[in-house]
Amino acid sequence: MHTDEPDGADGSQDAAFHWLFGDQLGPHFLRPGATVVMIESRAVFRRRRFHRAKAHLLLSAMRHRAAELGDRVRYVRADTYREGLDRAVGDAPVTVHHPTSHAALRFVRSLPGVRVLPARGFLVPFEEFGRWAGSTGAGRLRMEDFYRTVRRTHELLMEGDRPVGGRWNLDADNREGPPRDVEVLPVPAPYRPREDAIDAEVREDLDRWEREGLVSFVGRDGPRLFPAHRAEARRALRTFVERRLPTFGRWEDAMLGEDWAMSHSLLSAPMNLGLLDPAECVEAAEGAYRAGRAPLNSVEGYVRQVAGWREYMWHLYWHFGPGYRRHNALGHHGRLPEWFTSLDAGAVEARCLSTALAQVRDRGWVHHIPRLMVLGNHALQRGWDPRAVTDWFHRCFVDGYDWVMLPNVIGMSQYADGGRITTKPYASGGAYINRMSDLCGPCVHRPGDRTGERACPYTAGYWEFVHRHRERLAGNHRTVRAVRQMERLPDLDDVLRAAGERGPDDAP
């Protein structure tokens, strides 16, 4: 764990310039009195094949922020950050708030005259997390313990020293499957921003860069779905709290094929751009509960996502350090097939996977259950390289940044750290997807079939995964039962034979 310089250390407050990265766009990232520097680097898009909608959202958000700041900002469009910073400030001293990736932090600390100020955009300072982690001793760092500490420290949903309602975690109340005989939830639609001249300019630039062969994207860039400036982000937060939060908890883990948003907030993208501060989000949700406008299970579930899991991922990213991305406890080295990397949903027969891929292709976003139990679950069962899976999630999701995707994918989705974050792999068969969605009914596969023409790739894949890692899973009290069940399967040889006949690029 590292520490940051306080504001003003080593002449920071005397620096005339303050640099904002593209995910530091809210008012809480400004430094009073300083001229703002913003750099649009084309090299970022050359190095990796990002989702087109992600590139559009990022550039739109940066350019909207520059328009808001007016004469206060020096906005430079350059090939690289280094070139842009030189053009903006020369050798003048500049400050920047703690960046959100290991690579960016190394870069800014390598630059002469750049001072790194404390991180913003999170509830818990590094020092506070360090004290908590040090107090746990040699035991496993548990998110639930951290979450309770955050609730106490920040007085979220508390009555004195006790949680409101008597329970810290209402997750058991938030596992309801979707209502039957409906294609979309009976809830108001999410906030929808309106594109403007800045969006049109961004789209023209991206089109030109692609025509000139400077960059290459995946996915589609339809009308923008996520806020690109502060006013839009605040309206989106208000719409969620007033109209959608009441039903969020009930169907938090459910999926409907025709309802990509369900009751989710869709606030991860503006929050990860820095347009919203997490404190204002959880305080708004708690306010709705206190005013009797939202039930406790929905509010606690949302607070746990933001003040619990989001904070936990941020701090574990820095606590574990850069070497964490090299973890591969299960020894998975399979390459991602072309149909997956190109988001070719039409190549896939399995309806749950095809639907999730199509939603990523069209919007650059799906909620946490398709991410974990459809996309991540499939990658885990197929044995794909966890580092490549992490990169895919980072590039293809509008809310994807290194700090959030690395621990989420390496630690949770792919179990590549061997259990430092979770107690068992998040692998499941088709029965879970069938219970929590309407996706299995019209599918060519049957969730209960392990073999045969209609065998569910998730059900067969689950047992093949258990067999492949049976020794490790037999030593885990949470998965030993699955190993015993596998050993009693009468058709296990057929399941394994079919898996052996499958090509690495075969779509399910």
Which key phrases capture this entry?
two-stranded antiparallel ribbon, 3 domains, Rossmann fold, mainly alpha, Serine Threonine Protein Phosphatase 5, Tetratricopeptide repeat, 21 helices, 6% strand, globular
Q: Can you tell me about this structure?
A:
- It is a single chain.
- The chain is mostly helical and 508 residues long.
- The chain has 3 domains: 109 residues, Rossmann fold (3-Layer(aba) Sandwich); 182 residues, Alpha Horseshoe (Serine Threonine Protein Phosphatase 5, Tetratricopeptide repeat); 176 residues, DNA Cyclobutane Dipyrimidine Photolyase, subunit A, domain 3 (Orthogonal Bundle).
- It contains 21 helices and 7 strands.
- The strands form 2 sheets. The protein has a 5-stranded parallel sheet, with helices on both faces. It has a two-stranded antiparallel sheet with strand order 6-7.
- A hairpin with a 2-residue loop joins strand 6 and strand 7.
- The chain is globular and about 75 Å long.
- This is Cryptochrome/photolyase family protein.
- It comes from Streptomyces chumphonensis.
